[in-house]
């Protein structure tokens, strides 16, 4: 298996079960996302994108589920959901392009 360069092949996110969440407030944390997404299934990973220079939240995140069905359920329930005075956009993440 090819190494992703980010901790080895077993540290890669599973794109098939990965949900991209956009329109997040700058105050949201990974713990907040765990709490929001956990009711739909086993969350294996939460990642909030931050600016490398400023450390500020970039307004989007990825949430990975163990099962694709759980990800689908979360998308149906949370896409368009009002959270922290913003309307979330929740969809399947696009597969990463090979670099």
From TrEMBL:
Biased composition (Basic and acidic residues): 1-17
Annotated segments matching region Disordered: 1-23
Protein name: Eukaryotic translation initiation factor 3 subunit 4
Gene Ontology cellular component list: cytoplasm
PROSITE patterns: RRM
Pfam families noted in UniProt: RRM_1
SMART domains: RRM, RRM_1
InterPro entries for this protein: eIF3G_RRM, Nucleotide-bd_a/b_plait_sf, RBD_domain_sf, RRM_dom, RRM_euk-type
All copies of domain RRM, residue ranges: 17-95
Key word Nucleotidyltransferase present: no
Gene Ontology biological process: negative regulation of gene expression; positive regulation of signal transduction
Keywords of this entry: Initiation factor, Protein biosynthesis, Repeat, RNA-binding
GO molecular function: mRNA binding; translation initiation factor activity
């Amino acid at each position: 298996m090819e190494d992703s360069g980010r901790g080895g092949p077993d540290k890669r996110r599973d794109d098939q079960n990965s949900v991209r969440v956009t329109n997040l407030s700058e105050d949201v944390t990974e713990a907040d996302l765990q709490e929001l997404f956990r009711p739909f299934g086993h969350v294996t990973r939460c990642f909030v994108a931050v600016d490398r220079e400023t450390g500020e939240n970039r307004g989007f995140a990825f949430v990975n589920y163990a099962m694709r069905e759980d990800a689908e359920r979360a998308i149906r329930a949370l896409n368009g959901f009002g959270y922290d005075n913003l309307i979330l956009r929740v969809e399947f993440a696009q597969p990463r392009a090979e670099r």
